[in-house]
Design brief:
Elements: H1 18-30, H2 34-41, H3 46-60, H4 68-82, H5 89-99, H6 104-118, H7 120-140
Length: about 140
């Protein structure tokens, strides 16, 4: 089994501690330093931040049955259905979904499906978050 971090093979390299592998995967998925996330929780619960890195990003993201794109679709749907559309989770994962190779159209289609499964208000909030992220990605692109 290949152990690289391509969208088709989301596995983390089998080197270092679980925490180090989790941090490396986090950085690959989000394109952000793991330290930013860790520092944000340092005064509240550094243990929670460590668990996220070790369990979610080192253990779960390295499982071979789902690609990174598929994982991001699942997370987008779950965040939208739960109403986690505010500051962090959905916004971060819309960006991660784009980084994984999902198109804006696929992300929007995911939220349309969420609307029928979890309700239109949840889908509308998710769409607005996605729209904001899409706009920030476009404005961050270098101009020719």
């Amino acid at each position: 089994m290949s152990r690289n971090l391509s969208p088709e093979h989301p596995s983390t390299p089998p080197v270092g501690s679980r925490f180090e592998r989790g941090c490396a995967t986090f950085e690959h998925v989000f394109g952000l330093p793991a330290k930013t996330f860790l520092d944000a929780l340092a005064d509240v619960s550094p243990d929670f931040a460590r668990h996220v890195m070790e369990w979610e990003f080192a253990d779960v993201y390295s499982r071979p049955a789902l690609s990174l794109r598929e994982r991001e679709l699942v997370v987008l749907a779950a965040c939208a259905a739960l109403g986690a559309t505010g500051q962090g989770p959905l916004r971060l994962h819309v960006g991660a979904a784009l980084r994984s190779g999902l198109t804006q159209e696929a992300i929007v289609e995911t939220f349309i499906q969420v609307g029928f499964a979890a309700g239109m208000p949840a889908a509308l909030l998710a769409m607005q978050t996605a729209k904001d992220v899409f706009a920030s990605v476009v404005s961050a692109e270098p101009r020719a």
